Structures are given as structure tokens and as C-alpha cells.
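Sample intake sheet
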Amino acid sequence: MSDDEPPDFQDDPDGTQRKALYRALRSVADSLGRRTDLLLEEILSVQLGTDYLSVARRGRMSVSRAKRMHAWLAGHHYAIAAAAAPELFPIEPESVWALFLRDRGHRDGVSVVPLEGSLGIVQRAADVQKPDALLRLGQNFTFRVMSPWPGQAVAFQEYNRIWHPLPLGRNARHPRATLTTGPQYCPRFPNGDPVPLVEQDHTGDHRFVFVLSCSRPLPLDQPGIMKAWSDSAMRVLMITLRIVA
């Protein structure tokens, strides 16, 4: 199989490819909070027997059904499927993350809050922040995140197509933030005050991604987040900040 051709599952005598396909299906079902067997029935548009899931798990699904399932997973949940079975969904790792953000990311729920330099006084730029906020080089700011539930968050920042972790804890050694329900500064001090952030060197667009979770410890890496994904228990918030001189 070349990188631009889907697998045909013909040269798969021991079911290795179809076992990987089932692994991708199960990962997508988990991310959606769905039963694997019911999702498979929906994909194939047939009512399956009680033992068919074990058939699929053992890599014994028919070639025609495997092709149909692969096409559905590729068309609807490529990033999640690729994280679980990269040999069947070949794509560069950074592209998998980009697809994941496209499919799961939300531009509501996070905004940039400028801070008045040395005084640390919050300045509300507008009631509703646009996704692309504008700040000057050296201007202090923070983020306001709206969480639908208590839990935790991790964050990443992208500049010039390179991703870096953005620590959200009480200092740079603590990557995770504890969340409460509702709006809150992120990162913030234990008393709730915002931790000032600043960009001193690089103008241009900086993209920030916040991953929120209500029920599970969050991985600190992007592949781990994609593998652990749950639509019902996790949420991705995105915002682009433009820094000007």
C-alpha cells in the first residue's frame, strides 16, 4: 500500500490489517461514547449477529466490509483512526493533529484578555472576543476559558508550524491546570488571579489550543490526547493571537 492509496485488504491472510482496522473502529467508538457493535452496524447498514464483533476483532471480517469500514473511518474520523492504526491511515504526524483540530476544535469558549503591564489590571477589550485577537509585542495578557465542567486542562502553542507545550499550572514546571465550571483565567494563581503571559520576541500569528477534560488524567502529548479522546468528556478550544510590533 502506498501512502496515497487506501488498503485493499486482499493481501491480508492472517487478518493483521483487519485487526488494526478493528482497533481504529474501537478507538473512534470510544471517542464518541458509542458501543462498538452499534457503530459497526451503522457503518455497514446491516444488523449483525451477536458474534460478529468477535469476528471483526480477530481480523476475520470480509474484504468488502473492511473496505467499507475503512472508507467510513477515513471520511469521518481520520485523525482518531490514524492515531490508533497509523499503518492503515498513513499521514504525517503533524497533519494528523491538524485534522484532529479541524474535526474537534471549537473557537468559542476561549478569549484573550489584555493586562495592563505592571499594574496587573484586567482590561476588557470587548464583550465578545474575535478568534484572531491583536496585541503588541511585550504586552501582558492572559486567557479566559469557559469550562462546561470541573476538571483539568493542558495547552499547546504553535508558531511557525512548530508546536510547544504551554504550562498552565502555578509555575512552568506544572503543565496542567485545575478547572472549575464556568469562566476562569488560564493560567491563574491559586487565588484565581491571572498569571500574566507575554511575547517579547516574535511577531505574527500564534495559535493556542486548550484541551479540557472532566473525567480522566490528561496526557501531555498530542498523540496521547488523540488516543484518549472522548467527545463526551473532553473539549478542544482554539484561538489565534496576532502579535504586532
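Comment: The chain is about 30% helix and 25% strand. Residues 16-32 form the longest helix (17 residues).
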